[in-house]
Specification:
heterodimer; A: alpha/beta; Rossmann fold; Alpha-Beta Plaits; six-stranded mixed beta sheet; four-stranded antiparallel beta sheet; B: mainly alpha; 10 helices; 75% helix
């Protein structure tokens, strides 16, 4: 697939000297859902803001649908719909007026049928004549999505779409994003909820302290996720792995006091019971068993911590 | 898409006029009432005891100053509010992420604000006819002058709106600087009535040249020559455009 956004060597330093982005390289493919994961202040919003035109980059190059964001900003911005984190709306305007306004602002000719479709898709059609201030928070978020979609963008940026939203609304939002992707629009969302990335993304990028520390297919990450580690605490330490345990590929830990076995929970035979039987046959005694799942959260936390230690 | 985004200009322009329409009652009624009050107080009560100024009845003499004063404040308030509000509510994100150039943004916001102050100026002009006989020596020049004043003060207001970081800052310039300068700039008197050194000091007030020029379009004469008035307007336009150009180039208080 062709990449619709291409970011190379992107840096941003603020006047205070704070380096928000330290050379980010990233390619987003057309039609995918990409989740940008990271703690607060990691540079997620800065990165999005630069691509959309709200913040000036200090260095590097960004193209959107082949258009450079500086020299051909009309081309790049026309391809993008942005839904920022804060609920910022013209409270006194009617829903339909504010969405029609957005389409005009992006230079598109009036198209009532398309606006109606967007509003219907977002369950806003019944509220089209309401003033925005009469709507609930969740509905206001939908209005902002409708504004972002009003000019038929190829890329949709959702900056923390479910921040401060209750569980039910979050489910709604996930469903909505799933429906949006069917229209072919590329979606880039930022979040600090791991489940959100797991639930929706095709690929996940982890950003921390202005650096992209990981970009991976979610499927690959999920494979890592599906693994569990069995730790067997032995009664007596072993000096080496007995050759009889070769088929389990176990490793010795804690100076021979523990055996670690990694298995796939989704496999037909996990090998756990046969391993334990074998240990019994060999006369290797154990006093404790422990299994642990490596989650995306673990990967995330360890990445972030490794950065902090560095 | 490339080239001029005329649809964006039209969208912003309509949006701004719609914003004015929401408050049309205060927006249009207030200038009518204020003008009437000025005529009752200055034209009626005081003007009847005053002699003519430069051969012009006092009640008629104050009309150009009155129109100018309202247009100054209307232009500054409307234009500064137009761009300050999106900054305040956060909706400016959309403008900054839209394929809209600086020139298009200025045309749209300043155009809308100037439209409103021209409407207000015209209402005062029409209201004045209810009270006094008002000849207009150069009608075309008068219309042109009003447009130039509206545009240059709206540009100034636009700068103020970008600069301001609070509602107080938004109000401080029009109320504490422009309003006094207008009163002292010959809105209600001829500067020839002043004694020295005040007359010379007054000549440092740019508002004098604007009011005088507008008065010239009504009565064919002003406190200073019309060429000086035009020079001052041209200077103000150039200065404001220069500042706005710099603001957009550097992203001043708009983009980090």
């Amino acid at each position: 697939m062709a990449s619709i956004i291409s970011i190379t060597g992107l840096t941003k330093s603020y006047a205070s000297g704070f380096q928000a982005l330290k050379g980010v390289d990233l390619d987003i493919e057309e039609g995918e859902i990409f989740a940008l994961l990271g703690p607060n202040g990691a540079g997620k919003t800065t990165m999005i803001s630069i691509v959309c035109g709200n913040v000036r980059p200090s260095g590097g190059r960004v193209t959107v649908a082949g258009h450079d964001i500086i020299t051909d900003y009309r081309g790049s911005r026309s391809a993008i719909g942005l839904v920022p984190q804060e609920l910022s709306t013209d409270q006194f305007e009617r829903v339909i007026d504010t969405v029609t306004f957005s389409r005009g602002l992006f230079g598109k000719p009036r198209n009532d049928a398309y606006i109606e479709k967007v509003l219907r898709d977002l369950s806003l059609w019944d509220k089209r004549n309401n003033k925005i201030l009469e709507l609930s928070g969740g509905m206001k978020r939908r209005v902002m999505i409708a504004k972002a979609l009003s000019h038929e963008p190829r890329v949709l940026f959702l900056d923390e779409p479910t921040a401060g939203v209750d569980v039910e609304l979050r489910r709604d939002m996930w469903k909505l994003i799933g429906e949006l992707r069917l229209t072919g629009v590329t979606i880039i969302l930022t979040t600090h909820y791991i489940e959100e990335a797991e639930e929706m993304a095709d690929r996940v990028g982890v950003i921390n302290k202005g650096e992209l520390v990981l970009v991976e297919e979610k499927a690959t990450l999920m494979k890592k996720l599906g693994k569990k580690t069995l730790t067997v605490t032995l009664s007596e330490p072993l000096s080496a792995v007995p050759p009889e345990l070769g088929e389990w590929h176990v490793t010795l830990k804690s100076d021979g006091h523990e055996i670690e076995y990694v298995f796939d929970t989704r496999a037909e035979r996990t090998g756990v019971s046969t391993l334990l039987r074998k240990l019994g046959d060999l006369g290797i005694g154990y006093k404790d068993l422990n299994t642990q799942q490596s989650s995306l959260e673990d990967i995330f936390v360890s990445l972030v911590h490794r950065e902090k230690a560095a | 898409m490339s080239g001029f985004n005329h649809r964006a200009i039209w969208s912003i322009y309509k949006f701004e006029l719609h914003r004015f329409r929401r408050t049309w009652l205060t927006g249009l009624l207030v200038p009518v009432i204020t003008t009437s009050l000025y005529f009752v107080v200055f034209g009626g009560a005081i003007g009847s005891r005053m002699t003519q100024i430069d051969g012009i009845p006092y009640a008629a003499f104050i009309v150009p100053g009155l129109i100018m004063m309202s247009m100054f404040t209307e232009s500054i308030f409307n234009a500064s509010f137009g761009i300050y509000m999106p900054k305040f509510t956060g909706t400016i994100y959309e403008l900054l992420s839209a394929p809209v150039s600086a020139v298009e943004t200025v045309i749209a916001y300043v155009g809308a604000a100037a439209t409103k102050s021209l409407i207000v100026g015209s209402i005062i002009f029409l209201t004045a006819h209810l009270f006094v006989d008002l000849p207009v020596a150069h009608p075309l020049a008068m219309a042109g002058f009003m447009i130039l004043i509206a545009v240059s003060f709206c540009l100034f207001g636009f700068i103020l709106g970008i600069w301001a970081q609070s509602f107080e800052q938004l109000q401080v310039i029009p109320l504490l600087i422009v309003m006094p300068m207008t009163f002292l700039g010959g809105a209600f008197y001829s500067i020839h009535m002043l004694a020295e050194p005040w007359r010379t000091i007054t000549l440092f007030n740019p508002i004098v040249y604007l009011i005088s020029g507008f008065r010239w379009t009504f009565f064919g004469r002003g406190d200073v020559g019309i060429e000086f008035s035009l020079l001052f307007i041209a200077g103000m336009l150039a200065l404001c455009l220069g500042i706005i150009g710099w603001m957009f180039r550097t992203g001043y208080r708009l983009k980090k």
